[in-house]
């Protein structure tokens, strides 16, 4: 069974772009560059715990490409974080930014840690010490982190504050843009918190436009009820979708008539997960996948939709809110069954687009309204979906291959114009 971590995630990521590169005839030197991250930073650092003991942590920052702009990508706090995972995630960021046409590159970082096992004071010390260890490897014109699994706006505030205090007094006010996904009060952008989930909703809306489906007729199952899964579910429910099954690391629940997503969000905030939510049936993890639904939205971790799970699934559309949730075996099964996949680099790009807006606002010290953010986000994502649909029709390929082809068109043009230094 293709359980997580039996294959290299980075290898899967490379194979994904190579398939599109074959289709559009990308030359070898550019493929070789894109198959490798540009820089790999690994740091080991000690942190004092609340009981006075010291613990060593390992942190990563993998910078895949900055050909289109500064390196950009989230920081993950999770016990399974390792070099292979972060390298794959960094590469996906390069293609995501290229696909949606924003002037940013790709990177990803992480610390191998279970954040739920540490106090807030300990986590603050981990974030600050990790930021210090990264030092000049990050910066507002060089490499700009953001939240990801296990990290949040408070942690981004600590990161920014640490970096600002490491900067000279003349630069201290100019470095807010060293990280995005900050709290509003410290220079964050309105709309960033829910941006990824909102982008996932736009993916669903675009598909409805293509197929003539009605949003309010759809039953949706969601894996993961963190930042991305919860905001997507809330926004989709507001548009009339039935959120029928939700699973996270604590359990799986369902309600045929649709879950009350607002109450579920409150429950998860107070209890740390969906388990125990009243007014819902308790389901098994495998029932999250096997319960028939129109749309399945993986919004947790990579390699969750495996071959055996794909065989058991009964749905028409997968929207990859998470990065890398579908294994190659599952993808082959879906292709055979005619199940559509809206790929991660397109489906979850709303987060990095609003991170780009936050960075622009920090640079100019002028802050936008919610309407500005939402209008611009919708326009960028809609155009990206249109471009993928058009490229797919030209190339007669999958949506994932078409998405990579659009991204590669942009990357290859810049590599060819700039050439290789020296
Ligand atoms: P999060 O930490 O807020 O939430 C993660 C969710 O996954 C939680 O509900 C957790 O319970 C669930 N989960 C963890 N392990 C699980 C398991 N084994 N089985 C089922 N559920 C499990 O993280 P997030 O920011 O919502 O990120 C989710 C995914 O979206 C990740 O793949 C991330 O890379 C991707 N993503 C996030 C953003 C963003 O802006 N936060 C942007 C783009 C992509």
Architecture overview:
There is one protein chain. The chain has 422 residues and is α/β, with parallel strands linked by helices. Among the domains are: 37-178, Leucine Dehydrogenase, chain A, domain 1 (Rossmann fold); 195-347, NAD(P)-binding Rossmann-like Domain (Rossmann fold), CATH 3.40.50.720. The chain is 47% helix and 16% strand. The chain has helices at residues 9-24, 28-34, 83-100, 120-134, 153-166, 192-211, 227-238, 261-271, 285-290, 307-312, 328-337, 344-347, 350-364, 370-395, 399-418, and strands at residues 39-48, 54-65, 71-72, 75-78, 106-112, 143-144, 219-223, 242-248, 251-254, 281-283, 295-298, 317-319, 340-342. The strands form three sheets. A seven-stranded mixed beta sheet has the order 10-9-8-7-11-12-13, sandwiched between helices. Strands 1-2-5-4 form a four-stranded mixed beta sheet. A hairpin with a 5-residue loop joins strand 1 (39-48) and strand 2 (54-65). Helix 1 packs parallel to helix 3 (83-100), helix 3 (83-100) crosses helix 15 and helix 13 (350-364) packs across helix 14. The longest helix is centred in the last third of the chain and has 26 residues, at 370-395. It is globular and about 55 Å long. The N and C termini lie far apart (47 Å). The mean pLDDT is 97. Nicotinamide-adenine-dinucleotide is lined by residues 147-150, 196, 223-229, 247-249, 273, 299-301, 321-323, 348, 351.
Keywords:
single chain, 422 residues, alpha/beta, Rossmann fold, 7-stranded mixed sheet, 4-stranded mixed sheet, 15 helices, 16% strand, globular, binds nicotinamide-adenine-dinucleotide
């Amino acid at each position: 069974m293709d359980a997580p971590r039996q294959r290299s995630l980075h290898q899967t990521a490379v194979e994904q772009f190579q398939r599109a590169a074959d289709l559009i005839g990308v030359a070898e030197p550019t493929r070789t560059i894109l198959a490798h991250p540009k820089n790999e930073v690994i740091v080991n650092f000690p942190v004092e715990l609340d009981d006075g003991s010291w613990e060593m942590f390992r942190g990563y920052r993998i910078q895949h490409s900055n050909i289109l702009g500064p390196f950009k990508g989230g920081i993950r706090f999770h016990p399974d974080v390792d070099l292979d995972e972060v390298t794959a995630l960094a590469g996906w960021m390069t293609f995501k930014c290229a696909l949606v046409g924003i002037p940013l590159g790709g990177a990803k970082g992480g610390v191998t840690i279970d954040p739920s096992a540490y106090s807030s004071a300990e986590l603050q010390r981990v974030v600050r010490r990790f930021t210090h260890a990264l030092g000049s490897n990050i910066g507002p014109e060089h490499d700009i982190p953001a939240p990801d699994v296990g990290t949040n706006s408070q942690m981004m505030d600590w990161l920014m504050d640490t970096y600002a205090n490491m900067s000279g007094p003349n630069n201290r006010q100019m470095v807010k843009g060293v990280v995005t996904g900050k709290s509003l009060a410290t220079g964050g952008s309105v709309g960033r918190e829910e941006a990824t989930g909102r982008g996932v909703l736009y993916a669903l809306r675009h598909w409805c436009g293509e197929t003539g489906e009605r949003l309010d007729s759809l039953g949706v199952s969601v894996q993961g009820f963190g930042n991305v899964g919860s905001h997507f579910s809330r926004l989709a429910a507001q548009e009339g979708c039935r959120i029928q099954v939700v699973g996270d690391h604590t359990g799986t629940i369902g309600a045929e008539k649709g879950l009350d997503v607002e109450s579920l969000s409150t429950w998860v905030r107070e209890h740390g997960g969906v388990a125990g939510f009243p007014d819902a049936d308790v389901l098994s993890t495998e029932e999250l996948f096997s319960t028939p639904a129109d749309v399945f939205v993986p919004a947790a971790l990579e390699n969750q939709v495996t071959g055996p799970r794909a065989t058991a699934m009964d749905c028409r559309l997968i929207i990859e809110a998470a990065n890398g949730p579908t294994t190659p075996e599952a993808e082959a099964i879906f292709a055979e069954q005619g199940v559509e996949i809206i790929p991660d680099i397109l489906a979850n790009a709303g987060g990095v687009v609003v991170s780009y807006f936050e960075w622009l606002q920090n640079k100019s010290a002028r802050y936008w309204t919610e309407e500005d953010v939402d209008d611009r986000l919708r326009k960028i994502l809609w155009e990206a979906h249109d471009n993928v649909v058009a490229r797919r029709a030209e190339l007669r390929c999958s949506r994932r291959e078409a998405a990579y082809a659009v991204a590669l068109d942009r990357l290859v043009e810049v590599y060819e114009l700039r050439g290789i230094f020296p």
